[in-house]
Fold this sequence. Notes:
Blueprint: E1 3-5, E2 11-13, H1 15-27, H2 29-63, E3 71-74, H3 87-99, E4 103-106, E5 119-122, E6 125-128, H4 130-140, H5 151-179, H6 191-215, H7 222-240, H8 253-267, H9 271-280, H10 282-295
Parallel strand pairs: 3-4
Antiparallel strand pairs: 1-2, 3-5, 5-6
The site of glutathione has 9 residues, from α4.
Amino acid sequence: MAFVATPGGVAIPRPHAVWREVSHCARTQTGRKVGKVVLAAAILGVGLKLYKKYKAHQRRQRWSQAGKDVVVLHQFERGTNMPNLSPFALKLETYLRMAGIKYIVDTEEPQGARGKCPWITINGEELSDSELIIDYLAKHFNKPIKEELSPSQHAIGRAVQVMLDEHTIVAVAYKRYVLDRMSYILKCFPKQYQLMMRIFYPAFSKQLKKYFFTNGMGRFSEEEVLFFLRRELRALEDVIGDKQFVVAKTPSTYDAAVFAELTQVIIGCAPEVERYVRDNHAVLVQYFERMKDKYWPDWDQCLSQ
Length: 305
Ligand SMILES: N[C@@H](CCC(=O)N[C@@H](CS)C(=O)NCC(=O)O)C(=O)O
């Protein structure tokens, strides 16, 4: 084979020499076998991709026939003790119920274009991110939740929601997936995924640790994580006070998020956390029960059986 000398003194093969070598190898018996395997794998890969595309197209056709203004809510399957282990999916489904918007659930494709759960299809249009979706629906259905909030109530609602959606839930997730190695949350997963999660946890846990380390939560001890959690629960309880809902006497959009996140804290984190909330935060427990009774009368039927 012909070589080219590089300035560093390393000899690299000339391109045409490489090609000659490859075509020589391809003519040998082993080369032909390898060629056939590579070709078969490529055909299979392309075939699989086309099949997936075809299936996705078929699903979209089905979803577009859901009916005018009917939301197709794409989300993970039901958990064993709560309708969804994704707080964002539970928030959105609670919002749809609060707003009286008609919806159907799809679990075949729970992660949308942004790779996140939940997402929706409405009138053939696809939208993702629970916040952007709620904003879109509120406009599309002309503010279906009749809330009369002052700017300062909106500000409090927004601040509480961001605290829960962006910080409290990270502490909860770090506790349930990393600190407790899924010992509790695994039982809350849809039954059909529990074995698979158990098997793949070791591989999955490395990625999780990396994610939480980058986020920052992964750099704290359990005691520190629980300190954040307790402090935020206290703040939430102080905001609710003696009101029926988070920022007012009547329900507002913020309640969807608060309820969804509180569900994760109370029954989706760890038995000791649930005990702590039940022993110290009667206001939060009552709020949780109130929202559940009002918007999820069919809670038990919405669990993984
Ligand atoms: N900001 C998004 C967050 C959604 C989100 O993070 N969903 C999680 C499930 S709780 C997810 O899809 N994770 C999968 C991933 O990130 O690959 C929203 O509000 O919808």
